[in-house]
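User: Fold this; tokens only.

Assistant: Input:
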Amino acid sequence: MAKKKTPSGPLNSQETVWVWHPAVHERFQETLFYFLLQVRPFELVEFDNEVKALMSKYGVPRYCLYQLFGNVDCLLRVWLPPQAGRQFKEDALGLRNVKLVNDLYVAIRDKRLCWIFNEAEKLPINSIAEAAARLTEDEVRRQQVGDDESLRQRLKDTGLIFKRPVETVSGVRIKAFIAFSQPDSGTNEKLRQAIVDRLVEMLKDREYRFDQPPTLMIGVGFCWAFVKVVAQDYAALGRFVNKTNSEFGLYGIYSSTLLVVGDPPPIEGDSVSASALGVSGGFNPLVARVLAGLYGAPLDHAECGKFEDFVLKRLPSLESQPTADSVKDMEVMRNFLEASVRDDRDAAFLALYPAIKGAERRLREPLGRLVGKTQYPGGMPALLEFLKQNKINPPKSPNDFTLRDSLQAGAEILRHALPDDTWVKERLIGSIFEGIGDIRNTVMHDKVLDLRAEWKAYADRMLDLFDIRNGLEQRYLHYV
């Protein structure tokens, strides 16, 4: 592919731009999106004007557009509210001669490495997050217009903006993006974190001669991990890519390298969109936090609406009073819902399996002591007899209790010990046990299910399990 010229406007190679700390984008509930585009034929002036018009529609004064070597022509980078991301993708596909390559987009969930983080560590400040929380929409607008020097200095001093010089990617300096695929579905969260930590180590290794601090992002979409590097030579870049493929290929992770055209060099423009500043409105912070990738997914509006409704109606309670359990439970729901958005059955089950096993163990362990402490009539033999009702293979001892057995046993004990407890009467009923038992059996025995059709039923049952687990354990504390 012949070298192309970079469009003008936001990518003016003579200009230095101000970049917001990611905490500012988080403050206004924005998600970082990347889109891979083909533009055929590539007409510089026409394409440049159409992109400017699209950005103007969404109130994005600064964005980044990298031209690439190879079959993909451009990588577009833009901060938007998640809900705006869905419509933005559709509008980008409406540009003349443009198509999204194989629906390739990624919504970034987390930045692990970034040059801004390095710069922020040098500042004598306590909390960038707290400074971002105090930032107003009006201050953001004034900074992006660029006519208030006293405001800009204050934002610099508090670590909310950073001045990024023009990059000159020429000669032996090679800018590249490296996209890493999702690990195998059998890779648990602990191992995924270990892989990310190893990737951080490699990116910091001087052997690869990266010219500036690399950027490492974790996302949802066409890749799992997305890396930006500037290498001093192709050999060093090749060694890094080969090393990652060698180490991570064991987990089903493979990479694709996107080489950036460097003449003239792009500037990485950055802004908070007008949509996030309340001009367009319509997005909910909780949806943005839980499902960053929802609005870039290949779902129609009705399907997106179902996910939105579920998040808004069922998940606020997990955030209202954060505990160690609620934080873990929210992560389980986030991973399950993201897998459901992608219609990834294996990943969905992987998200639920440890949570179900953990709840089963926690609810089974105290039952033997609970029988004695509450003076349950007839003791454990009577409880085992109770559990034989309507069971083909009843448990012979508490060690054999399934999740449903533990739930039924706990409910039976508490009905005798706490006969006036309203929660026990209203929540510990058979239909809830049946639903939780169904999801346990489906996940544990890897039964086939239509994830796209049934995700909500399973999500509801998981929340029931969390609620019942918490309620039972609170009451067990009175006795054991």
